[in-house]
Amino acid sequence: MSRHPNQKPGDSDQSRSGVSEPGRSRPTQRYLPYFRRCTPLIPGREFAGTVEKLGAGVNEYRIGQRVVAYPSLGGYAEYAVAKTSEVRPVPDGVTSAQAAATPTVCLTAWFGLLTDGNLKAGEWLLVQGGSSGVGNAAIQIAKHLGAKVIATSGSEEKCRRLRQLGADVTIDVSQTDFLPEVMRVTNNRGVDVVLEMIGGDVYQKSLQALAPGGRLFSIGGAFGSIPDSPPALGEGRKATRFSITNYLKSKPEDFKQLDEILKLIQEKKFQVVIGKSFPLAETRAAQRYLEGREHFGKVMLTM
Question: How much is the pTM?
């Protein structure tokens, strides 16, 4: 970690916030060469804080207002700059930590399930890696949509917590092969949708868990490779790759969907799971903790 001058909202559509809670995500190995080429670089794709300065012509927000932002970079800092299109207000009753933990995981789950997943009420969803931030969000969103959820994790204690979040069935993959169990639960039909983020053998076996007409969408291979081009599948099955970053680049107006999610949090209809927090100065320790695969929910940095 090193010191950098405070960023300034030079453009007419930018604001600068004092950061109180940056969210932390796991960078996959495929992005590390990019980070090395671009140094010095301030990572941190999401944060929440209080508006300190506004660019000329910005009138959607006011000095002192609490906001959450998703600028893709710059969040691991005391101050960060974001465009107004990347910022949403934080409602009363939602903490800055809850807000900062929300954009990546909740919008990934929300739009992934509704677009590539096309999840409908009554369908079966398999969430691989349910104890992750995206997994926690996907379970709750799927139940909000009226779906049935099978979630995997690496210990019985984590499985117990996933059931508390709403999972109908959990599988401790340290003890049980998930594929036969999924087929047993669904009467050998398979699931309608798979949210996959593990990669490798888990990705390949997840394809086998799809029912006819089933949809698998992958959001990355945290611990194994995934095909650059998703394989062709029979009986109407389909596999895709989903990126919330690419999705919002093509449909930036959909970032406003965060308002509905924050409202669900405000109404206590949605639980933000923060597994552990680290001071900003201990960013490296936070990264090591993420890589250890012991976390449950979102890992945060605090000021």
Answer: 0.86
